[in-house]
Amino acid sequence: MLKIVPIILCGGAGTRLWPVSRESMPKPFMRLADGRSLLQATAGRIAGLHGVAQLVVVTNVAYSYKVVEDLSTTQLQVPLALLLEPEGRNTAPAIALAALWARREHGDDCVLLVLPADHLIRKVEAFQQACRQAIELAATGRLVTFGITPTEADPAFGYIEWGEPLPGARGCTVKRFVEKPARELAEEYLRAGNFAWNSGMFCFTAQACLAGLKEHAPDVLSAAQATLEAAGTTSNGSGQVTFDAEAFRAQPNISIDYALMERSDNVVLVACDIGWSDIGSWKAVSDVHAPDELGNTSVGPALLMGSRNTFVRAQDRLVAALGVENLVVVDTPDALLVAHKDASQQVKEVVAHLKKAGSNVASEHATVHRPWGSYTVLIEGARFKVKRIEVKPGASLSLQLHHKRSEHWVVISGTAHVTRGEETVDLGPNQSTYIPVGVKHRLANRGPSPLEIVEVQCGSYVGEDDIERFSDVYGRVKGEVKA
């Protein structure tokens, strides 16, 4: 029986979906209408496939805790492995590393099913049937790509021209890939009838993938081999592989399409109608929700009156839209986006502007999630900052110090185990402590309930990068900004 190894690619900033998707909590962790994240939905679709030996997620090391947290709530019946990248790269090195790892663990003939974590697929049974067809083709040594039957001439997608059907009508030969054509050309492709959208989903054996890379992109393969060798064995038997930063950085920054699929003559296409969306813009998000009689869609507490073709995503407060048309309105606690639907692809330019200006709003939410819990900045000024901090049961922050600020902690609920210099103390509700500048300290929750405190920072500088780390149970590097 074939061994199937799904490879979920869980990376990317998803800047077109700002302000919900941000660098610290990107698109794969966005919640759908049913409460699941896109990552959870992706993993859930795999559950109906037979022969799955192990699920592999390739993600940034900063998201490892969130991946484990999300997938712990799904009914995974197979072991989970995480391949942890020290920084963002591209799909070719990610897939090459996954293929090398899978070959080492499961053999040359294991079939890799490569799936982005941030796509929405509404027709799950049709998707699983397409996967079975792709797996059957991949077992013959072919490189398989999934082509989406286009519903419109959308220039935001790449296109694949397919040719003759294969015996048994299981798939078609691929003539060429086209990268995001102009609208007029996309309309021509739609009329031709033998073009599909490039989904970014693939299927091949580990051997076929690596042989193709050896022939068409040997630099990608050799860099991946060096990176995997430098990583050594899985850490602490936890199913996590952390790659050496220097070796990883030497890998070419190239997509699997350019490195392999477009160069190979061994590519076939499985055409499918699976209710697919790459959720690549807020317009795409609005399109997956059922509209009212005026074309409006909404998520959260929203009121639309006299408005047409407008999407509102509200979170903590009511958003009322009166007499507007073709708008996207996305409200979060610290940022509000208002855009014309036709301009929704340009949201990434807002993020670029914010980053250039040094604004944290580009990358962090008002509530920032960490492996140990979360913190929310309540108010901030020139020489002070006030946070609400929640620490999960059994979790702790790193042992650290700050060079430019002191901290005052007041316990709201739970019990705080505090390390301050050479002393330790347990504090309950309505008790407090003071951490002077330059003193090593750690906050831990050894109790069964969440710990909630209010932290008041005072000093000449209260930026998150004023931190020196000495030890950390989550393996984060010394001096890393995250607390």
Evaluate the radius of gyration. Answer: 24 Å
CATH-derived topology of the largest domain: Spore Coat Polysaccharide Biosynthesis Protein SpsA, Chain A
How many separate domains make up the residues? 3
User: How many DSSP helices?
Assistant: 11
Rounded average pLDDT: 92
The CATH superfamily title of the largest domain: Spore Coat Polysaccharide Biosynthesis Protein SpsA, Chain A
Name the strands of the widest sheet in spatial order.
19-20-21-28-23-26
Helix content: 10-25%
Pick out its properties:
alpha/beta; Spore Coat Polysaccharide Biosynthesis Protein SpsA, Chain A; Jelly Rolls; 3 domains; six-stranded antiparallel beta sheet; five-stranded mixed beta barrel; 23% helix; disordered C terminus
What does this structure look like?
β7 and β8 form a beta hairpin. The chain folds into three domains: 274 residues, Alpha-Beta Complex (Spore Coat Polysaccharide Biosynthesis Protein SpsA, Chain A), CATH 3.90.550; 66 residues, no CATH class; 105 residues, Jelly Rolls (Sandwich). The longest helix has 16 residues. α6 packs across α7. The strands form seven sheets. The chain has a six-stranded antiparallel β-sheet with strand order 19-20-21-28-23-26, with no helix packed on it. It is globular, with a radius of gyration of 24 Å. With 483 residues, it is of the alpha/beta class.
